[in-house]
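hey team, just a heads up i'm posting the complex here instead of the shared drive bc the drive is being weird again. everything in one block, sequence lines first with there labels, then the predicted structure for the whole assembly after. its two chains so it's a bit long, scroll down
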Amino acid sequence: MNSWRPTPGLLRAVFVAGFGAIAALAVGSPAVVVLVAPLMVWIAIALRARPSYLPEPQATIAHHTLIEGQGTRSMLRLGDPEAVAEIEHVVRVSGAAPFLATHPANGVVGGLAATTGGTIELSPRRWGRREIPDGKVAVTSAWAGFRFGPVVLPGFELFALPTAAPFRAHGEAPQPLGLVGSNRSRRVGEGTEFAGIRGFHAGDRLRRVNWRVSLRTGALHVVTTRAEQDSGVLIVVDALADHGASQGIDGHASSLDVTVRAAAALAEHHLRVGDRVALRVIEWKGNIVVNAGTGERHLRRLLGTLARIRPGDQPGRDLSHQPIRVSPGTVVFVLSPMLHESVVTVTGVLARHGLPVMVIDTLPDDVRPIDETAGHDARVAELAWRMRRADREALLESVARSGTPVVTWRGPGTLDEVLHRLARRASLPRQVVR
Amino acid sequence: MRRLPLSQWVLRAGCCVAPLVAVLVSVPAGATLPPRLFVGLVLVALLGAAYPESPSAILAPLVVIGWWATRVEDQTHPLVLVAAAALLVGHACAVVAGLGPPSYDVERATLLLWARRVAMLFPVSVLAWLVTRAAEGQSYLRVWVLAAAVAVGLLVVAISALADRQELE
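-- predicted structure starts here --
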């Protein structure tokens, strides 16, 4: 259909007008002349407006990478200005894709070429790679005499980064061991957080002298402060499976939705306060590792890695032996629905190395992982899920018994209390297995 | 059909109702409308409304023309103008409804453009009707030579007047 062809409307008008003219002459009916005369004029005008240039429709998109929930526009270019000038009407149909909202909702946009332009608004409703399938476009000449198309518009790809779930934490890092940062160190040093008052030593700065205490005691005293250091953070993401149905950013979240958005929130929070953040994604096909880094570019890298996560399809491999290299003092957040023993083992290994490890449970309460409409017996599915949850409770208990705190992700304040407890525990003597 | 947008419902209703109106107005002009023919016309009109881009959409206008050509006694009755307007509106509705897929919600600007076009074309019927009224009572051949000349003249005038398409918009 890559050429201009008469529309069915033009062909119908030609046939009706021709039949009418013949009937009028054959039967001698003036009324028929009155009936078909406007159609004859319409045919003449439509034929005169026959286009001579071929359009070259192409779809372009303003942004290829978005954060889930954001929107962009897919524009339509119709070719040379000479070809565009001959087009009166455009209709474009966009292919539908899961978790992709379009405006108009049915993906069909059209109108006069001079005003509409065939632009469709798109918005990915869930993180990940969204492949927009091929679309179609058809244009008609003036008076709908000729049509070009429908021709296929090649599909394209949108990359949706996860939106960071609302999150803030005021808890201090348990073992900050970096150079410069905002976390209060266990060491005394050049910071702003008050640590104590002691007698003056040679080398102390004069601005540290506490004159009130010095006058009262009769000897020079200085204020000591905590050093401020950056902390290392490792985010471990369990991407072995996705439990529950995801309805995108506007609806119900699956376990992987919660995991990925929580990981994005943690990464964003810790990078904002100057910590070094590393990421480890546990997948069946192998771990994805993003080494520790800081800054906005590193955040984009982490979000991109999170957006590329796909639940694995090779269950059965033992993943617990894959080494995880972590520098001392790194705070480890394990985000997982805790339904697989490998993740529990990984958590235990990290904890035995003396690292402050925290498990963040990301399994939604009302999750129903088995689709009851897919031919499964609902009662059997319910029973299986209850057994699975019972196993999970046992796994969580074993994790908690090993001294690793487990918290349910609930957004802001999720980690505060646990971080305080870990910081207190970090100041105590401990046994480290190497 | 349930998922059609409102504009498509309206346009398809126009496709369906227009041929019925074009035939019904012939009754005051002296025609007797058999119920069977009317039911048949309803069916083909519905078919044309359901598939305005298909060849079946041609049936209803052909029935209307055939009816007026053979069954209406008063050929120059003023109500033929109503039938001509209905036929034109039905054709325009089918054309606009067929501009896109059934789920295409035709926007206001396109509807207004085609409404203006229908309004521009309808005077052609009025002119043709005036010519036939003027030629009423004349000999058969003379009437049709005159009618053909008027039709060709109208075509030439219309094409010349609409040479620049932009002026229409």
